[in-house]
Amino acid sequence: MMRLDLKVTIRQALSRAREMLAIRQAQAEETNNIEDPALESILLLTHALKIDRVQLYLDFDNQLSQELSERFWSLIQRRLKGEPSAYILGRREFYGLDFDVDANVLIPRPETELLVEKALEITRQHSSLIIADIGTGCGAIAISLAVKLPPSASLRASETKIYATDISAAALKVASANCQKHGVADRICLLEGDLLEPLPEPVDLIVANLPYVSETDLTKVNTLGFEPTLALDGGKDGLEKIRRLCSQLQEKLHPNGYLLLEIGQGQRQAVTAFLRDLYPSAGIETFNDLAGIGRVVRVTL
């Protein structure tokens, strides 16, 4: 495998790293999770050098010291072994916000932003709501809602309750740090426990991005071994936790309340059929993500 020479300029180091990541990207999809070799090379190099992208371009023809070359090379090696860039960098952007992440939490995905969009649509229609983000992980959904809710929505801090639950104490520690980072610690109540059980009261809106990968597909997830299995494994058909949560709604969701669920590709029919059997009079809608995949289910009791 090609190695980075210790005596190279920033331009040369970036070019060689991009080439190596591109070679790995060209391999079978299930063996890597590299989507954009050029972008990832830049992100890893700016992280290694502790500079921003503007400074990187200004210093393009400067030679890297041996220490910095070795530091950058070690990051590239980690990436080539499959470790997600988000874990290497310790952060991930979601809904225009920067979140701290580590191996205790699922890395926020762009498709989950649709869940936030649909939640914001609901909040704009009501003067006050109690919201619960179930399986919060790093807190991306709950914090995005707390930050993005405009004053005109009447969801001022004094009127809003946002609960965020997770079964993992380690995940809640990350979520807590992100709440502090974004200045919403006083607006979000973090609760440890399984699904809806920790909620101290019924709520008006439940938002949930639960594990929905089936047991047979789990080995195909290219971040398996890095991301927590607890946050990926949805049981035999991928819907085990979704069914359990839906069965708890009547105790934890107010009449006329809303449930927003993220689901995986090919799960729309099974989820909506289950919900119609469980709640025959409920309103059920589904929404596609930008790739045209049924991604969000909205239930109105």
Can you tag this structure with a few keywords?
alpha/beta; Helicase, Ruva Protein, domain 3; Rossmann fold; 38% helix
The CATH homologous superfamily name of the largest domain equals Vaccinia Virus protein VP39
- Approximately what portion of the residues adopt beta-strand conformation? 15-25%
Structural class: alpha/beta
Helix content: 25-40%
- How many helices? The count is 12
Termini separation: 57 Å
Task: Give the CATH level 1 class of the largest domain.
Answer: Alpha Beta
Parts with pLDDT < 50 across at least 5 consecutive residues: 152-158
> Could you please say which CATH topology of the largest domain applies here?
Rossmann fold
Major sheet, described briefly? 7 strands, mixed
CATH architecture descriptor text of the largest domain: 3-Layer(aba) Sandwich
How big is the Rg? 21 Å
Write down the overall mean pLDDT: 92
The total tally of domains equals 2
Question: Strand order of the main beta sheet, please?
Answer: 5-4-3-6-7-9-8
SSE succession: HHHHHEEHEHEHEEHHHEHEE
Number of strands: 9
**Molecular shape:** elongated
Describe this structure in words.
Strands 5-4-3-6-7-9-8 form a seven-stranded mixed sheet, with helices on both faces. Strands 1-2 form a two-stranded antiparallel sheet. By secondary structure, the chain is α/β, with parallel strands linked by helices. The chain has two domains: 10-82, Helicase, Ruva Protein, domain 3 (Orthogonal Bundle); 91-300, 3-Layer(aba) Sandwich (Rossmann fold). The chain has helices at residues 10-25, 37-49, 53-58, 66-80, 85-89, 113-123, 140-148, 169-181, 215-218, 240-247, 249-252, 268-278; strands at 91-94, 97-100, 130-134, 161-166, 188-192, 203-208, 253-262, 283-288, 294-300. Strand 8 and strand 9 (294-300) form a beta hairpin. Helix 1 packs across helix 2 (37-49) and helix 1 runs parallel beside helix 4.
